[in-house]
Amino acid sequence: MRVRPEADPTTSRMLRGPVVDVLLANGDVATLRALQPDDHDALVELHRRTDAESLRLRFFSSNPAAGLQYAEGLMSRIEQVIALVVVRRGVLIGVAAVEPAGSDTAEVSFLVDPAAQGLGIGTLLLEHLAAAARSRGIDRFVAEVLAENAPMIKVFTDAGFDLRRRIDRGVIILELDTVASAKAVAAADLRESRAEAHSLAPLLHPRSVAIAGVRRDGTGVGRAVLQSIMNGGYTGVIRLVHPQASVISGIRAHPDFAAIGEPVDLVIIAVPAGQVLPVITEAAEAGIRAAVVLASGFSELGQTGRTLQHEMVRVARRHGMRIVGPNCLGVIIGDQDVRLNATFVDQLPPPGGLAVASQSGGVGIALIDAAARTGLGVQSFVSLGNKADVSGNDLLGAWMNDERVTAAALYLESFGNPQKFDRLARRFTESKPLLAVIGGRSAGGRRAGASHTAAAAPPSVGVQALFAQAGVIDCRDLDELADTARLLQSQPLPAGLRVGIVSNAGGLGVLAADAAAASGLLVPELTPELRQRIAAGLGSGRSVMAASSLGNPVDLGAGVTADGFTAAVREVTTSGEIDSVLIILAGTAVTDARAVLAGLNGAAGRPGADSCADSRENLGSDGQTRVPRTLVAYGPGTDTDDARVRSDATRYVRMRSAGAALAALAHAARYRSWREGGGGELPAEDRPRADRARRTARRELAASAAAGRDGWLTPDAAARLLEAYEIPLTAGQVVVGAEQAVAAADHSGYPVVIKAADPTVVHKTDRGLVRTGLTTPSAVRQAAAAMTAELGEGPEGHDALLVQPQVGAGEPGVELAFGVVRDPSFGPLVMVAAGGVAIDVWADRVFLMPPLRQGEAARALRRLRIWPLLAGHRGSGPADIAGLEAMLLGLGRLSLDVPELAELDLNPVIALPADVASSPIACVDVKLRLAEAVQPTAGEAPGLSPS
To answer: Omega into 326 within 30° of 0, i.e. cis?
Structure first.
């Protein structure tokens, strides 16, 4: 819910700017904003009520006059300092300020109300002060702290900023950089996830629920919610609020929330939109900490609805209340100790460990139905609706360390803050699976970028890049999500991509093998020894089948006995030759399907600890007990009782089709690979380099605009920007006319390449403006003359040509493309692809979302279909893989350091065998466009920080 230190700094010069809602460590909601002139009395009162010991630690004097004098002085300097305050329920409870102590250094000081200490207020102020200070060119903070002031020292150390300290006569002098390092951001995220757990506890674990809007005539949404709660067996206390009725459905009703007379954790508001604000106000004033607003008629309907929604949230914030919705389906808490179905869908899934959030009510209904139908166990379900307050990010933070949650699933149509989602999702998936279906990401909305990189980046690529890096399981639809979640709930994670297919119907096995390949799984041929063991278990006369039909898929034949089927599954499962098993059973007149199912249920498999709920055990493999097994059954005798299938889920998980089973197995295998592979640490930031690059970019952008090039840089200007990030551009000489081209070629040595140097000419090959393999002066002269004629008349520099030595002449090389494009929502995206003139034909590309880690760069290269060529194919030496990974990391850093970088194409990048080439990586063509920096869009509710 809280803005990160790197975003939206609030300073004293932004007196009418946005405020930031923050979570305190106990879950209370407070407001962080700039100190304002009308805060005078509140600031003086804060210092007046501070006890003598706190004053001594802050001012090195217990004299109350010291605090009051400082408060008056701070108010008099309000336009010269950066000062922030924290306000909770209308009371100013913390203040922090920085005052200049040098050209790039400032002294920082804090005071927190003694009654509010220990809630993380000092840390929050420090994070936001650092962001505000950086916007004014302040690189370092200095603070003087008494050695016995342990709480204040802890604020600095826990914040995660780079910190240095020294002691001078009992005073500790602290220096810290204001840059929000990866460590500082991680520390802030961890603190916030703990605060989210406190803040959302009344919503996710309510001991009492009140409902407003239940009609006496038995109709309406409120009555439907009440019926769902009663039918679901809610274990807590139900209270009703109605202005006239005293009893509804046998439950006592109260005229207002204050009349209830005892604490209420959660209120369900089922009144029309026009009545929501007074009901929210009354509930908040009664001390209720969480609300679910079901009504539509808010931001989805335009400005009037947005204003009403904003006012509703403002009231809730003032009283520390959290809101789900509006325009939502409600919430379900499946925990056995709660059993709350506060939705208007009277269907309660079985209890389990899956936590679900859905931005769509209709999708929520479908998910609830799928869970109830398939036995998918649900811990909690939250319908987000308009996300006026509680978002998917907030819930991920609350679910992070909740032992009752073993996995999470999201249906989203927008990201309030993709960068924050990336951090939260990565932390979540390090220990628990996170599945997602994202709506509204079709490729129909391609942006009109001129470069290959921009044209290749439809709206979906940002989502795909984010999910791939954060370990999120990207599901195509709700059925795939439910299938994968059921597999993860009951089965171990597969150790790899090898799947064994065991069937008594040969054709079904063949189709399954095709589906496995389509899902990226491997169907390895089983060893002769394993086939012989399988044949032996089938009984006399079957050993002759070993070579022909038991190789994988394993075709046991239509007449296989139940014992033979079970024995074959056991042999394949325990062989060590596969990582997962797909069992396909076709019930026939000669195959007792019920006996086969009974045998499979009793066959190997250790209940409980095998499921993904125990993530520590899942990281190992101990043969049979660690191999996931899926079952697809057709025909007579296979329609077993669903409850029995669910109770035996640790033996196998039953799927609706082979394709569904294999897709789920592929997701599980890739998730395990991601979790074990890790991404490594983020490379250290180089702030001096970033500052130099930003100055260069701004200078070149101005020059490009003056020359009418629309932000496109000349090759020389692009090289100046890229060289600091160790991007190996091939040298060349810009010339005009055929004779200068011949002179440049003679100087560089033949063969050479000539191409148009005007950066506004993007697709040069299409116009014949690239000529390669020129080996003589006459060939150069002829090519240069032809290109000059093609370019025709134009502004100065329009007919310039670039002459380069040809890279890799006579040597086998792999053509790649690297690039950067800036997505309006996700920010910069880095691309690596199969390159050259056929880049669009190959469509073999991977996008990444910076900042990048070493492991992410390595995985991106290996996801390309041309990876075998880079690794060394048919006797050719491998490319400089480490150098290619370093290029990705460098482009990722450049894209963050220079927000003016709008588009970048490096195509082709020729990767030569590292063992024969002195320069194994050559970027022979660059196209780079700059534009005024635009921050990614984030945040969906006025007055709220992006979440």
So the answer is: yes
- d(C-alpha 521, C-alpha 693), whole Å: 44
Cα(665)–Cα(496) distance, integer angstroms = 10
Q: Is the pLDDT of residue 837 over 70?
A: yes
Instruction: Provide the 8-state DSSP code for 608.
Output: T
- Neighbour-count burial for 66-104, b at 16+ CB within 10 Å, e otherwise: bbeebbeebbeebeebbbbbbbbeeebbbbbbbeeeeee
Do the Cβ atoms of 632 and 617 come closer than 8 Å?
no
The answer on 347 and 446 residing in a single domain is: yes
Residue 116 counted as domain residue = yes
Q: What are phi and psi of 673, to 5 degrees?
A: -60, -40
Number of domains within the chain: 5
CB-based burial label for 772 (10 Å; 0-12, 13-18, 19+)? middle
Query: In 3-state terms, what secondary structure has residue 539?
Result: coil
For residue 666, being part of any structural domain is answered with no
Crossing angle for the helix pair 528-537 and 562-574, nearest 10 degrees? 160
Q: Is 668 helix (H, G, I), strand (E, B) or coil?
A: helix
Preceding omega of 851 cis (within 30 degrees of 0): yes
Q: Which amino acid is at 378?
A: V
* Amino acid at site 843: A
649-707 confidence digits (pLDDT tens): 458 899 999 999 999 999 999 999 999 886 777 887 888 899 899 999 999 999 999 88
In one letter, which amino acid is 376? L
Tell me how far CA of residue 878 lies from CA of 324, 623, 763, 809, in angstroms.
54, 35, 30, 18
Cα separation, 402 vs 773, in Å, equals 63
Claim to verify: residue 412 and residue 378 sit in the same structural domain: yes
User: Does 544 reside within a domain?
Assistant: yes
Indicate the pTM of the whole model: 0.83
Looking at per-residue pLDDT, the higher value among 661 and 916 belongs to 661
User: Domain for residue 188, yes or no?
Assistant: no
In whole angstroms, give the CA distance from residue 231 to residue 911: 65
Spatial distance between the Cα atoms of 838 and 826, rounded to a whole number of angstroms: 27
Amino acid in position 233: G
Domain assignment of residue 572, given as a range: 498-654
Q: How far apart are CA 857 and CA 846, in angstroms?
A: 10
Q: Are residues 113 and 239 part of one domain? A: no
- From residue 918, how far is each of 139, 887, 912, 913, 921 by CA, in Å? 41, 17, 9, 9, 9
- What is the distance between the alpha carbons of residues 180 and 424, in angstroms, rounded to a whole number? 17
Residue 508 dihedral angles phi and psi, to the nearest 5°: -65, -35
